[in-house]
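Treating backbone geometry as a discrete language has practical consequences that deserve illustration. No coordinates are needed to read the tokens, only the vocabulary itself. For completeness, the protein is quoted in full, as a sequence line and a line of structure tokens:
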Amino acid sequence: MTTALPKIAFIGLGIMGSPMSENLIKAGYPVTGYTLEQEKLDRLTAAGGAAAGSIAEAVGDADVIITMVPASPQVEAVSYGPDGILENARKGALLIDMSSITPQTSVDLAAAAKEKGIRVLDAPVSGGEAGAVEAVLSIMVGGEQADFDTAKPVFEALGKTIVLCGPHGSGQTVKAANQLIVAVNIQACAEAVVFLEKSGVDLAAALDVLNGGLAGSTVLTRKKDNFLNRDFKPGFRIDLHHKDMGIVTDAARNVGAALPVGATVAQLVASLRAQGDGGLDHSALLRAVERLSGGQV
């Protein structure tokens, strides 16, 4: 089948990458994926995509290359070196990194790619696994307007709120702020849950009415059932939020912004991880509050 839509290479098919790549296939894009786990490649081919045996094979004739990997070291690992994206992508290709990494890593990648004639956008997302599945992600983008315009239809297959925030690295800066707000919000909700339960209030009823007022939030809407059912199956792992809190506290220090509450929550996330809960969903901040309150976890 011939198609006028650009060919997409998708590198990284994890909790976020798998549903995102499937939404691109549903939108009619030819998608070739590469990841380390065979079962994720099998899932992609079952959805109508093609599996590649290497990064070089995946990106060779791609018009658009999307990376969705855990952190800066992985972005660097897939981008640089003889087997990486920059050495194997064709000139003029558009590399869209949708991972959440340090703003500086994005700036450096854009500069290195420019020397190879490859255009780059940093485009981290918010919305978690549910947002990825439902194609309603918020996408914050850094880079050139022309490249953003080229990528817009691709973004529209993945998300709802799509905004160019400024030059290279800006998307990552906004994402860092997003993760700060989300972590503090989850922590506040977790403290409220423990307070309500210890007070003997009907938790489901309380969270419903709270969510209808000024205390309501997307976090509470998305995570209410996690709190009620103590279901911490990862949509977004504590390990990754720990990484993100490191990014935002470091970036804030570099620009001279004080994050007193953010720093405290960063420590609470770190303590939860140290207690072995790094693989759980970030709503498991509730477990940290329960421990501090003398509850059984």
About this structure: The first strand starts at residue 8 and ends at 11. The chain has 14 helices and nine strands. The two ends are 55 Å apart (CA to CA). The first helix runs from residue 17 to 26.
